[in-house]
Amino acid sequence: MLTRHDPNRDAFMLHGPLAAHGYDWWWHSFTGTDIATGEETPFFVEYFIVNPALAEDEPVLGQLPENKEAGKRPSYLMVKAGAWGKQPVQLHRFFSLRKVDISERVPYMVTAEDCLATEDRICGSVSVSEEAASAHPEWMSDSGEMTWDLAIRKEIPFNVGYGASKPLRDMEAFQMYWHAEGMKSSYEGTVCLNGREYRVSWEGSYGYADKNWGRDFTSPWVWLSSNCLKSRLSGKMLQNSAFDIGGGRPKIYFVPLDRRLLGAMVYEGKAYDFNFSKLHLHVHMDFAFSEEDPEYVTWHVRQETIHAVMETEIRCPKRKMLFVRYEAPDGSMRHQRLWNGGGGFGTIRLWEKKDGQLVLVDEMETTHVGCEYGEYQEEDIG
Question: What is the dihedral of CA 35, 78, 23, 59, to 10 degrees?
Answer without folding.
Answer: -170
